[in-house]
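[step 3/7] inverse_fold.run input=structure_tokens len=169
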């Protein structure tokens, strides 16, 4: 998928969470999540390479631009209405495959929110968006992500840097 071919962002609910579009009201929480250097070492992208000192609004704007261009489909992960993280689909290959990532703010880590959000997003992609295959990876040193991915997907290999996972219909 590219060139603004994404469907409208879904509104997903789980027993504890809501996943939906980021809004301007999320700017502060989303910027804090994006700026958390300790957590983002596992994200695989450093915003400072593009914008060393961005204002809060920059992160939301970048997410919107990626969505409009068909590069990424991101959703806020909400607990009682507050943005506590995000799930992001990337690397749509046009043949029914996409990669899924998830990050949860440090203050909310360790409560299963990542696993709950990730599983809901993967199921939506497979059963509502009609993808055939959702992939994910985590750095080998990232024990929390390994645990989350193992709970939602099956192992699909490894290399010197990453563990790979997949989920199919």
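[step 3/7] decode complete -> sequence:
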């Amino acid at each position: 998928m590219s060139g603004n071919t994404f469907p409208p962002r879904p509104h997903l609910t789980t027993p504890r969470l809501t996943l939906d579009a980021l809004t301007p009201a999320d700017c502060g929480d989303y910027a804090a999540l994006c700026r958390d250097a300790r957590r983002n070492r596992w994200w695989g992208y450093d915003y400072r390479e593009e914008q060393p000192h961005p204002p809060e609004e920059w992160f939301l704007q970048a997410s919107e631009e990626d969505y409009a261009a068909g590069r990424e489909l991101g959703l806020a992960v909400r607990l009682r209405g507050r943005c506590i993280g995000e799930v992001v689909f990337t690397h749509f290959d046009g043949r029914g495959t996409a990669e899924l990532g998830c990050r949860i703010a440090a203050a909310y880590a360790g409560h299963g929110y990542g696993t709950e959000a990730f599983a809901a997003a993967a199921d939506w992609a497979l059963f509502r968006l009609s993808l055939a295959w959702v992939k994910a990876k985590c750095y080998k040193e990232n024990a929390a992500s390994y645990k989350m991915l193992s709970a939602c997907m099956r192992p699909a290999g490894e290399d010197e840097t990453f563990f790979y996972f997949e989920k199919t219909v």
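[step 4/7] annotate
The beta strands are 12-13, 17-20, 73-79, 82-90, 97-104, 133-139, 154-158, 162-168.
Residues 10 and 20 are 6 Å apart (CA to CA).
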